[in-house]
Amino acid sequence: MNHWIIAPVVLPALLAPLIGFVMRHDIVLSRAASIAGTLALGVIALGLTQLAAQGETHVYKLGDWPAPFGIVLVLDRLSAMLVLLTAVLALIVVIHAAATGWDARGRHFHALFQFQLMGICGAFLTGDAFNLFVFFEVLLIASYGLMIHGGGRIRLQAGLQYVVMNLAGSTLFLFALGTLYATTGTLNIADLAIKVRAIPLEDAALVRVAAMLLMIVFAIKAALFPVQFWLPGTYSTAPAPVAALFAIMTKVGAYAILRIHTLVFGPDVGATGGLPGAWLFPAALATLAIGAFGVLGARRLMPMVAFSVVASMGTLMMAISAFTPQATTAALYYLLHSTLATAAMFLLADILVTRRSEGDALVPLPATAQNGLFAGIFFVAAVGIVGLPPLSGFIGKLLVLDSLRMSSGMAMAWSVILAGSLLMIVGLARAGSVLFWKSTALPAPAEPEAPGQKPPPPAGPLEVAPAMAALAGLALLAALAGPVARYLEATSTQLYEMQGYVSAVLGEELED
């Protein structure tokens, strides 16, 4: 077994309590340990991605217990790519949090941050449905602590709604797992893939119930209609670096749908009969429409960015709902793009909001000291979010549109995607003109509003660099679209080859 496979889970799991109990009173030491650990996670993730790129599915058996009786972690192209994306995003976010001083507003930011990485990486690597639930709970606990970091009544209220929704999802998750276990006698994903297909159609009612319960649970995590309402309030009130990290959180729900509903409840499974895709498609259409109208109607910057996350999830899930290799390739490319694009906008919003007297309200105010720089970053990030050339969003949306060209809902999908893009262009253009163009026509304040209050200092290089690094990632995705698309095509092909995954996990047990 390759012990590096478990490293993305073990490294933050060991680092988090060390920071929380030993370094909590020394912010400099906490920052150094957290940044170094995240950088090490990125190096490990890069090595695992190169290992998975060879095409083999690697399995790590904890305690050397054979599957399906023991806990297994599974590394393939999909899980390796998402762990690498998590590490890159985490490094960008933790540098921004340290540079802006967000991490100093509470003692446990970096400990919770590492626990969050543990949960995300574990969810991407686990080969067991029950341990997927466990890692979801780690995500819930850590993300709640991060969301209320810095305190405040509004943040606590939004955090309560977030916890209630996720606890409801966790309860349904347990019901679904209990139903699956009662029906099949296993929760190992590879073993489920075999046993669900062996159930006669006339005895598959409970399997269909479990499939729909899991779909609802993952839809809550992915903020799909009609359970998307928790996301705008949560993301807009969370600390901006935390909201940027949360850009990968909804993708965990999308990943779970993709993994479970291709391997276990795939289109070829008679027990579910294409039920997941039929439910996902209209939900994705509604999610995209809600997100686009939210961007258009937002009167504050942070909610506008949060609604753009909702819209991006609608586009992503529209491609996933087709459950074909071509559509999955498009979905994965758009997943990479949308994660970096929304994270960049959240980080920019944080720098901008702290330098405006009205916070994130979209009202004309005198120009900030670096108005041109902020306007340039906003413009590039907006181009990425909307999906205009030359950045990767344009390629991602073209791939999604092309992948849905032969589907029965092609006309509706194209109409909603294109109309939603237009609404978002108008909303982001209006916000940019209010924040940067109209502000230049107003005279600069002669003195600070409050006596003795100093104007905020200009943003330093380390404060601006993380957002610019995320935007550079979009440019890199566009420049390397060919090689990235080829990797994603191989990833999709591997995902839909169920036998390869099952053989790698069960191996000798299948022969017996």
Short description:
With 512 residues, the chain is an all-alpha fold. It has helices spanning 7-22, 27-52, 77-100, 109-125, 129-147, 153-184, 189-198, 205-222, 230-237, 240-245, 249-263, 275-297, 301-320, 325-353, 371-386, 392-403, 410-437, 461-479, 481-496, 498-506, 508-511, and strands at 58-61, 72-75.
Instruction: Report the span from N to C terminus.
Output: 21 Å
Total helical segments: 21
| Quaternary form | single chain
Indicate the mean pLDDT: 87
The main β sheet shows up as: 2 strands, antiparallel
Low-pLDDT windows of residues: none
Helix/strand class: mainly alpha
Explain this structure.
- The protein starts with 6 loop residues before the first helix and ends with a helix.
- It is mostly helical.
- The chain has one domain.
- The chain has 21 helices and two strands.
- It has helices at residues 7-22, 27-52, 77-100, 109-125, 129-147, 153-184, 189-198, 205-222, 230-237, 240-245, 249-263, 275-297, 301-320, 325-353, 371-386, 392-403, 410-437, 461-479, 481-496, 498-506, 508-511, and strands at residues 58-61, 72-75.
Characteristics of this structure?
512 residues; two-stranded antiparallel sheet; 72% helix; mainly alpha; globular
Helices, strands, pairings?
Elements (H helix, E strand, L loop, with lengths): L6 H16 L4 H26 L5 E4 L10 E4 L1 H24 L8 H17 L3 H19 L5 H32 L4 H10 L6 H18 L7 H8 L2 H6 L3 H15 L11 H23 L3 H20 L4 H29 L17 H16 L5 H12 L6 H28 L23 H19 L1 H16 L1 H9 L1 H4 L1
